[in-house]
Specification:
The chain has 200 residues and is an all-alpha fold. The protein has helices spanning 2-23, 28-50, 61-77, 83-108, 113-134, 150-163, 168-189.
Length: 200
């Protein structure tokens, strides 16, 4: 079950990286590179944090072939995909899955609450941060006050930590669902994180 979620999360993150590259008119190599670093970046940072070196993703040939195939598919079919909404949808699903899976990896490493939340948040937002930097954008995690991103990942990781003593699978699914719901809900309701006041 967990491995299936890893593959789903990785592919959806690869889609967001590839779509972002297409929107910036990258060539095929650029699309594949951005798909790859977005897909495995957050998980690789998480693995280093919990002491897994080299990162798991780099030793999983099936996963890496999935990333490659996803990049090629997006490059070939992007004309038929409405990139704005699709990018948001895939990014949100990826965020939730990787936040929960990162939290589970932190728990397996013996982390407490805050360590688990950090592992989940880094896992959830890491790939997106790398994607934004490579496309010349300010990472959304730094300014999306009206679109909870890191907050959503942290909330999902926190739920995973709280439910893990009951059942690991339940904790991962509930954590992912929480992160997805918080991100979408914050946009629908119009919740905003506080920002500094500037003088008029």
């Amino acid at each position: 079950m967990e491995q299936a979620l890893v593959y789903v999360g990785t592919v959806t993150f690869a889609v967001t990286g590839a779509l972002a590259a297409v929107r910036r008119d990258f060539d095929i190599v650029g699309v594949l590179v951005l798909a790859a670093v977005t897909a495995v970046g957050g998980g690789s940072i998480r693995d280093v944090v919990v002491g897994i070196v080299p990162p798991t993703a780099l030793r999983d040939e099936t996963l890496l072939w999935l990333v490659f195939a996803t990049g090629v598919m997006v490059f070939a079919l992007h004309r038929f995909v409405p990139t704005g909404r699709t990018l948001y949808a895939f990014d949100t699903v990826s965020l939730g899955l990787f936040a929960a899976l990162g939290a589970e990896r932190g728990l397996s490493a013996g982390f407490g609450f805050w360590g688990t939340v950090f592992a989940g948040a880094v896992s959830g937002v890491g790939g997106g941060v790398i994607r934004d930097l490579l496309t010349g954008a300010v990472p959304g995690v730094l300014y999306r006050s009206g679109d909870f991103y890191a907050t959503a990942a942290a909330a999902g990781a926190g739920v995973c930590f709280l439910l893990q003593p009951i059942d690991t699978t339940l904790a991962v699914i509930a954590g992912a669902a929480t992160a997805i719901a918080v991100r979408i809900g914050s946009r629908v309701v119009g919740l905003r994180l506080p920002t500094p006041r500037t003088e008029a």
